[in-house]
Each structure stands twice: as structure tokens, then as C-alpha cells.
TrEMBL record:
Native species: Plantactinospora solaniradicis
Name this protein carries in UniProt: SCO5389 family protein
Top-level taxon: Bacteria
UniProt-listed Pfam families: KH_NucS_shadow
Amino acid sequence: MSLAVPPALLEAAERGSVDDAAFVDCVRESLPYAWQTVSQVVAELNTSDDDFADNVIPPPGEAERGQLLRALASDAIRGGLERHFGVRLAFQNCHRVAAFRPAAVDSDTYRRFVSTRGQLLNQSPELRDC
């Protein structure tokens, strides 16, 4: 299970629409390493003039790697994080999380990052098993 959903949030989902802030709070509580990593990348972006910031440090263990995979492989979770932080997230190699300014999504930098070439160039022998 990727999220520890509080009963009130599950009840809200069963009734219909879910408050985005409540969903994001559930993500923050359920996937603390993923939340911390995305928060750190967004903070770095917000303190720079660059179009993006990224994390190149692999997670300390499989549990943390699993959190990143669950957070960024889920359209709903990734979308919630993007809306909350006001960024576009990109992901490579089970750990490289990047946050892009929305205006940069149509940039060469973004296209290079999300390209097949970018993925291949970001490979290394120690990351093949991630």
C-alpha cells in the first residue's frame, strides 16, 4: 500500500470529490522521504534563477527508493505534488527528481531531461539495479 489513508479521507473519496490539500497531506504523512526530496528540490528551485533543480543523490535504502517510485509513478500523487508546489516534476533512474518552473516545460532543458537520450546518459553501472 502506498498511502496510509485516514478514515475521514477515505469516506470523502467514497462520497465524491476529495480536497486536494487533504490528499497532499496524506501523501506528506505516508511518503515522508519522497515528500522531503521533492520539498528540497523545490526549495532549491525557489532560491535560484535556474529553470530547474534536481536531486542526484540516491536514496539511503530500498524503502526510501520505493517511496519515490510510488510518489512519482502515480499520476494522482505526482499531480497533487505538482499542484501543491507549483512546479512540473520529472524523474529518472528511481531517484533523480527534478522540479521545473512551469514556464520551462517548453524549454530545451526540460526536453533534454525527459528525453530518451537524457535517460541513457544518466545511466551508470551502480544504478542499473535500482
